[in-house]
Write a structure and sequence with these properties.
Oligomer: heterotrimer
Order of helices and strands of chain C: EEEHEEHEEEEEE
Shape of chain C: globular
CATH superfamily of chain C: Oxidoreductase, molybdopterin-binding domain
Strand content of chain A: 35-45%
Radius of gyration of chain A: 12 Å
Number of helices of chain A: 1
Number of domains of chain C: 1
Structural class of chain A: mainly beta
Largest sheet of chain C: 6 strands, mixed
Number of strands of chain A: 8
């Protein structure tokens, strides 16, 4: 079972200092461009695996390792958010 | 950082929690907060909870359902009391939100405690004087399991779908595509669906089958624990 | 800055000597996964071991079932802090599967149906320390727990016991797998509490 990208708002805020759930991400695997809020989040804490809601491939992983936060954007070829 | 102002029972397993956050910047209906608990040995657990409140008020309302095998929700429901300090971050999320500038009719669909952010939208809608139609379809186990029961009782734009037991004249059982079709606003409405993952997946796919535009359907799945 | 939360201690982290540090006891079997459960059919299932020469050792389901099986009684420890004591599994020892494999390499990458990977030293998969398990508590292993077959390496954190196991590839270096690339510990000994690097 998985959650959706809404739950990424807090964790991604730590890295990007913006609400990234309304940002679009382009999937490296299938090219779909969707807001991160619609991504599938497998929240097997402490590691979260975020997958494209169209093709299911990995967009990014997110690990809270002790006092560090590590985000791997392996499956995202572009991020776009409204200029603030 | 917030201070718990009060708590009150919503259902046999759920509680409302009011929290004062003096420097709260205000929030839009549908947003959530991340609550972080810290044990004496430094162990931390963080979970997301939707806000039932919106607007500028620095008194926030959460409504939390206790998951039996959970770690954070049992603490919030059973142990938390007025005067406790609670570390929270927010408001969070700019996607699963409703604001009065939306002019489309709005269909809200809740499964269980997924009603919380949708109640925030109902309240914001009422407070704004918006003329856009808004109605709620609320799937819940029994009448006793309804969050905000007294408040919702006063509204006439709500359809209940009881899955375990309910009034004699009600259809009891899991929501079906046919019951969904009969209860929701027509194609072209904005739709917000919030609930457990299986519920959200089923409802969203039925809506698309019924001709609703996927781009007008916003979903939020909750895990809890 | 964080404050302590009055009355919150986390879930049952008591001082049971059978529990590694920071773990709590569970009677359930939580399902953890980085993706959807793949539909793996035993009619087309195969397991391979690939060495540095490119040689591929293959077993189909029937061949796996024909190998000697062992009953395994063990505790399992998940990095998400739950431990489950006294579990019973049945499967084929990796010693049996490696019997005819010739390799000079010291490390192994585990590959799963669905794309998951995790790494381990070769010596941690030998001498009665690792199995391909197909039965849990007397029943065929449920797909959500890795069925039809998963690796079982119970002396390491359970993310090293790859679900839906499809093959092992010998490696010269200890290259990191899926989670190890992103913050999980390269080895993962629960008694040393090696959760992250």
């Amino acid at each position: 079972m998985h959650l959706d990208g809404n739950v990424l708002a807090g964790p991604l805020l730590e890295l990007f200092r913006e609400d990234m759930t309304t940002a679009t991400a382009r999937c490296a695997s299938c090219g779909d461009v969707s807001v991160l809020a619609t991504a599938m989040v497998y929240d097997a804490a402490p590691g979260w695996c975020v997958r494209c809601h169209v093709c299911g491939d990995v967009l990014l992983t997110f690990v809270r390792a002790g006092d560090r936060l590590r985000i791997d954007l392996r499956g995202v070829t572009a991020l776009e958010l409204p200029a603030g | 950082m917030g201070t718990v102002a009060s708590t009150s029972a919503e259902t046999p397993s759920g509680r409302s929690i009011w929290i004062d956050v003096p420097d709260w910047a205000g929030n839009i209906a549908g947003q959530h907060v991340d609550v972080r608990l810290t044990a004496p040995d430094g162990y931390q657990a963080t979970r997301s909870y939707s806000l039932a409140s919106s607007g500028p008020s620095p008194r926030l309302q959460l409504a939390v359902d206790k998951l039996p095998d959970g770690e954070v929700s049992p603490y919030l429901v059973d142990d938390l009391r007025a005067g406790d300090m609670l570390e929270l971050r927010g408001p969070l999320g700019g996607w699963f939100v409703w604001s009065p500038s939306v002019e489309q009719p709005v269909q809200l669909i809740a499964g269980g405690s997924g009603v919380v952010p949708l109640v925030a939208m109902i309240r914001a809608h009422a407070a704004s004087g918006s003329t856009a139609p808004m109605q709620l379809l609320y799937s819940v186990r029994t009448p006793d399991d309804r969050f905000f029961a007294d408040e919702l009782e006063k509204l006439d734009n709500i359809t209940y779908a009881y899955t375990r037991s309910g009034p004699p004249d009600a259809t009891i059982g899991r929501l079906t595509k046919e019951r969904l079709a009969a209860a929701v606003l027509p194609v072209g409405s904005a739709v917000f669906v919030c609930g457990p993952t299986g519920f959200v997946e089923a409802v969203a796919s039925w809506l698309v089958d019924l001709g609703h535009d996927a781009s007008l359907i916003k979903t939020e799945r909750f895990g809890g624990a | 800055m964080s404050i302590f939360t009055r009355g919150f201690s986390g879930r049952g982290r008591d001082n049971n000597p059978a529990l590694p540090p920071g773990q709590y006891l569970t009677e359930d079997f939580p399902v953890l996964s980085a993706g959807p459960t793949p539909n793996v059919d035993t009619d087309t299932w195969e397991f391979t071991i690939t060495t540095e020469t490119g040689k591929v050792h293959r077993w189909n389901w029937e061949q796996l079932m024909a190998l000697p099986t062992e009953d395994i009684h063990t505790d399992i420890h998940c990095v998400t802090r739950w431990s489950k004591l006294g579990t019973t599994w049945r499967g084929v020892s990796l010693d049996t599967l490696f019997a005819d494999v010739e390799t000079e390499y010291d490390y192994v990458m585990e590959h799963s149906y669905g794309g998951y990977t995790t790494n381990a030293p070769y010596e941690d998969l030998r001498d009665g320390k690792a199995w391909i398990a197909h039965t849990f508590e007397g029943e065929p292993l449920d797909p959500e727990h890795g069925g039809p077959a998963r690796l079982l390496v119970p002396h390491l954190y359970f993310w090293k016991s790859a679900k839906w196991i499809r093959g092992l590839t010998m490696m010269a270096e200890d290259d990191p797998g899926f989670w190890e690339q992103n913050g999980y510990h390269i080895y993962g000994d629960p008694w040393q509490e090696q959760r992250y690097w």
